Amino acid sequence: MGAGPAGSSAAYAAAKNGIKVALLEKEENVAQTVRTSGVTLIDYAKEFGIPEDCYNPIRTYNFCSPNNTISISDDKPKAAVLDVRKTFRFLADQAKKNGAEIFVNTNVTEVITEGGNIVGVKASSANDEITFRAKMVIDASGFQSVVSKSLGLVKQWKRFGVGAEYEAEVENVNSDTWWMMVGQMYSPAGYAWIFPLGKNLVRIGVGVGKPESEVDPTERLDELIEKGVGPIKDLGKITKKEFHYGLIPNEGLSRKTVYDNLILVGDTAGMANPLVLEGIRYAIKYGRVAGDTASKAIKSGDTSEKALRHYEETWKKEIEPKIINSLEKEKFNPKLIKKKLPRHFLTLKKDTKIEISHDMKNRWTQLDIKTADRPGLLSSICSVFVKNNASIKKARISTYGERAEDRFCISSLEETPFLKKPALDK
Questions:
Q1: Cα separation, 23 vs 121, whole angstroms
Q2: Residues 229, 233, 235, 239: is their CA dihedral positive or negative?
Q3: What gap in Å lies between CA 258 and CA 242, rounded to an integer?
Q4: For the chain, which terminal residue's Cβ has fewer other Cβ atoms within 10 angstroms, N or C?
Q5: To 5 degrees, how large is the angle CA 163–CA 164–CA 165?
Q6: Concatenated DSSP letters of 276-293
Q7: Helix, strand, or coil here: 189?
């Protein structure tokens, strides 16, 4: 259910394994409505076989608050801003080429159960009613969790992010540079962004966490554009082309995701990093795992919850450290040189090592951070610097497999190292 990245990826994997697959999509076309800003890493795009013409590469990352700006550049692009519509249609086409049948403009109206277990759905398409009988159902219906909610297995998400953005043509933009903006003036519980798509196109957006803030992201976005706040003013004339609005869950691993004959995947399963609310790569990767698990269960003749449990164990084991890193508040004692860990870095994993030293000649404090790589790591670190008026004088960003080893040389607004303990703790 659902031809987004999770549903299409599940359909692709199951069809590739020789299973007869029906992929149901409620809209008239796949990706008719865009609900995400579409940011991921180039390595993941390549891993999933997403063509290069489906994304714009990013090499420079700018972070700003009302009083400070930080810019970090890589030697080569590492991040990507997806052409969401083109990418999602590529994923759906992959499924179709491998034998999946796609039913667009098809809305699930009823869930069919026998003996308390799901065995299919009824759906409306145009003026017709269609019954789909199935040995396995994969609920990839997104935030609304249509099938799972109809069965009474889940309730509406209580903590979630709301994002509003315009895709717009602008006068001035560096196509390999994005902006992330933090602070109350941008979003009281989230951040704003400018993500370039190439050819003078950008996505300008605001994300707000609920229920932490009652701010309407659309109203805040309109205000920022109208007033030309921060780096938005440097874009020059802004011609809005398309409006996007989306919801993404922010409750970590709270949902059970396998039942007899049923698997939950993507936003339906809560597969999102709670720090930056990014979930596309999880949706694709574990959508494929869901499709593979379902197809093997069907072939074995056992589609019970027990037979499907490997899927849940797999995705939660792999995602859990990344999600907990963003939510964790308990203190720990990583090995440091001379100084204790600043409180802002307490969300890093327990095997994190942070070494702090001072360079009096260059008048900066050097932070060497070694930790498990995860989405939003760079953003998290730089947000701390921005909020505390630390200026990055030099940076080295390195990734070795699943491990990040970063060095930041920072100074105060007075161009001095952070020698005093209160300033360093901040």
A1: 12
A2: positive
A3: 37
A4: C
A5: 125
A6: TTB-HHHHHHHHHHHHHH
A7: strand
Regarding beta strands 79-82 and 39-41, do their DSSP bridges make them parallel or antiparallel, or are they unpaired?
A: antiparallel
Can you point out the beta strands (E) in 98-146? Answer: 101-103, 106-114, 117-125, 128-133, 137-139
- 150 strand-pairing partners: none
Give 48-73 pLDDT, tens digit per residue: 999 999 999 999 999 988 888 888 88
CA-to-CA distance for 381 and 319, rounded, in angstroms? Answer: 20
Asked whether 130 and 104 are in contact (CB, 8 A), the reply is: no
3-state percent breakdown (helix, strand, coil) of the chain, nearest 5: 30, 35, 35
- Cβ–Cβ under 8 Å, residues 21 and 14: yes
Helix, strand or coil, per DSSP, at residue 117: strand
pLDDT tens, 311-341? 999 998 887 776 655 554 333 323 222 333 3
Residue 168's contacts (CB-CB under 8 Å, 6 or more residues apart) are 201, 202, 203, 204, 238, 239, 240, 241
The Cα 6–Cα 264 span in angstroms is 10
The structure tokens listed for 345 are 């870095």
